[in-house]
Design goal:
Elements (H helix, E strand, L loop, with lengths): L1 H22 L1 H5 E6 L6 E6 L8 E8 L2 E8 L8 E6 L13 E12 L3 E8 L14 E8 L7 E4 L4 E2 L1 H6 L14 E8 L6 E15 L3 H59 L10 H18 L3 E8 L2 H8 L1 H17 L5 E7 L2 E7 L3 H17 L10 E7 L6 H17 L5 E3 L4
Parallel strand pairs: 16-17
Antiparallel strand pairs: 1-12, 2-5, 3-4, 4-12, 5-11, 6-9, 6-12, 7-8, 7-11, 8-10, 13-15, 13-16, 14-15
Helix pairs in contact: 6-7
The chain binds guanosine-5'-triphosphate.
Keywords: Membrane, Nucleotidyltransferase, Transferase, Transmembrane, Transmembrane helix
EC number: 2.7.7.65
InterPro entries: Diguanylate_Cyclase, GGDEF_dom, Nucleotide_cyclase, Rev_trsase/Diguanyl_cyclase
């Protein structure tokens, strides 16, 4: 929830930034090149004397308040003129790229007989300019009437055209004849084309060339790329988070599977323990009950025979009395493991109580159960028990038949066992008449 809120906040901030980037584009990208008289720009005042004229020029002052000059335009040359040039580039050949600039602003006061003034933005390009010939630098020109006093004069870069006389004098081919601002070396203020003879006074306070840092298309492309980056970053983050979640889930699932398997095993162990006699490891009465129920069901539904063998250790009291109760315990456990080793997996061996055991033989006829009993009897009798030596046991065998019940079955086996005891022990007796 907190992460989602954080995401929404981030999105909101990004949308606001995008809106600012779009609507505040002009303000954000604006770059202004200022020609301030207080700054250290090289400049020159010129007249038409080189062209055979007689115009007088005079620099009146150069102070932080502005460049001030006057000229007295006189007849003499075919085109009398005077002008003031400010060098804005590093040199006369290395200028400033102002291709993306839009406006020129002039703070200029003029007094004189002429109201027309020319402004040149001079561009040096080796395709047509040479360092040796100052006039070969392109004359991007705009001409305006300085007849109405105003705060500043403003022209668009689009308003500039290349002076015709310059194109003609330098034989400029058409493909190079357009205005160009990619290497501006100087700005000039010159008397207009009207050639009004007489006094002209200029005071240039400030010039601003207004442009923008980046191209508009690049700016929008940058915004789009930034968003693409944000979206890609977000997707990468989501993929990483989801991968982590899937990995964690898998680990948790694996842990759960392991815990379940452990619990399963444990519950089976506990189940077995609940049905097992702790001393001998044989099943207890609960175990017998289940095996008998199972056998009874098989007898009734599948007509499979069910036999049981009752076993009682002979003279066990004597063993206890002679060797102690704990040795007696060891003998009982020994007999149990001996028997368990030699019975089928379908047979269930359980402790009936004290030194008495019962073997439930499912799907077993009485003759075969008697055979098993005999085998076990011999096995016990032939075994050498630690400390005690020889131990014997008596066996009574019975099977379900006809109308007999479970009670009859146990009673039959019990009676057979007592017969075996009566007849001298270490014997197997089979119940009859069941
Ligand atoms: N050590 C030990 N003795 C037990 C245990 N349960 C019963 N007994 C003893 O087993 C003896 C059984 O004695 P009896 O019932 O007289 O029978 P027996 O001595 O085996 O004589 P017969 O069965 O007639 O051959 C008793 O002394 C019981 O105390 C047991 O868990 N451990």
């Amino acid at each position: 929830m907190a992460a989602k809120l954080r995401l929404e906040k981030t999105l909101f901030v990004l949308v606001v930034l995008t809106a600012v980037a779009i609507f505040g584009r002009d303000w954000l990208l604006r770059e202004t090149f200022v020609i301030d008289p207080a700054a250290d720009f090289n400049s020159r005042l010129y007249g038409d004397k080189n062209a055979g004229g007689t115009t007088d020029t005079e620099l009146l002052s150069r102070s932080p308040e502005g460049f001030e000059w006057r000229c007295d335009l006189r007849s003499g040359s075919a085109y009398p003129y005077c002008g003031f040039e400010i060098f804005i580039g590093e040199s006369r050949t290395r200028g400033i790229d102002m291709s993306d600039y839009q406006k020129v602003r002039l703070w200029l006061d003029y007094e004189g007989v002429n109201t027309s003034i020319r402004v040149f933005l001079r561009n040096f390009d080796r395709r047509y300019s040479s360092a040796a010939d100052d006039t070969s630098t392109k004359y991007n020109q705009v001409e305006f009437a300085a007849d109405s006093p105003q705060d500043f004069y403003e022209f668009g870069f689009d308003d500039f055209f290349v002076a015709n006389w310059w194109l003609r004098e330098h034989n400029i081919p058409p493909h190079l004849s357009h205005p160009q601002f990619n290497n501006l070396v100087s700005l000039e203020i010159q008397t207009g084309s009207g050639h009004m003879l007489g006094e002209h006074r200029f005071a240039l306070r400030r010039v601003e060339l207004v442009g923008q840092r980046y191209d508009t298309a690049d700016w929008y492309l940058g915004i789009i790329l930034a968003w693409a980056g944000v979206i890609l970053g977000f997707l990468a983050y989501r993929v990483a988070v989801l991968t982590g979640e899937v990995r964690d889930r898998k680990i948790r699932e694996q842990e759960l599977i392991e815990v379940n398997a452990l619990l399963d095993t444990r519950s089976r162990q506990l189940e077995t323990l609940a049905k097992t006699d702790s001393l001998t490891g044989a099943f207890n009465r609960q175990g017998i009950e289940e095996a008998i129920k199972h056998g009874l069901w098989e007898w009734r539904h599948d007509h499979k025979p069910l036999s049981i063998v009752m076993m009682d250790v002979d003279h066990f009291k004597q063993i206890n009395d002679t060797y102690g109760h704990s040795v007696g315990d060891i003998v009982l456990a020994g007999i149990s493991s001996l028997v368990k080793e030699h019975i089928r997996t379908t047979d269930l061996f359980a402790r009936w109580g004290g030194e008495e055991f019962v073997l439930v033989c499912r799907n077993t006829r009485i003759n075969y159960a008697a055979h098993i009993a005999e085998k076990l009897r011999r096995l016990i009798a032939e075994h050498d028990f630690e400390e005690v030596g020889q131990v014997t046991a008596s066996f009574g065998v019975a099977a379900l038949s006809g109308k007999s019940s479970i009670e009859d079955l146990f009673q039959g086996a019990d009676e057979a066992l007592y017969r075996a005891k009566d007849k001298g022990r270490n014997r197997t007796e089979v119940a009859g008449g069941l």
